[in-house]
Amino acid sequence: MQTDKLSEIFGCCGSDHIHEECGVFGIYDRSGADVALDTYYGLFALQHRGQESCGIAVNDCGVTTSHRDAGLVNDVFSREVLDRLGSGQIAVGHVRYGTSGTGDRRNAQPLTINHVKGSMTLAHNGNLVNAAQLRNELELNGSIFHTTTDTEVIAYVLTKQRLHTPSIEEALSAAVKIMRGAFSLVLMSPKKLIGVRDPLGFRPLVIGRRGEGYVLASETCALDAVGAAFLRDVEPGEIVVIDENGLRSIRDNCVEGKKSLCVFEYIYFSRPDSVIDGSSVHVARQRAGSMLALSHPVQADVVIGVPDSGLDAAIGYARQSGIPYGIGFIKNKYIGRTFIQPGQKQRENLVRIKLNALSATVRDKRVVLIDDSIVRGTTSARIVRLLREAGAKEVHMRVSAPPFLHPCYFGTDISNRDNLIACHHSVEEIAQIIGVDSLGYLELSDLERIPDNYHHGICNACFSGEYPLDVSGAEQVKHLGEQKLSPEAGKGNA
Question: Hey, which residues are catalytic here?
Answer without folding.
Answer: 22
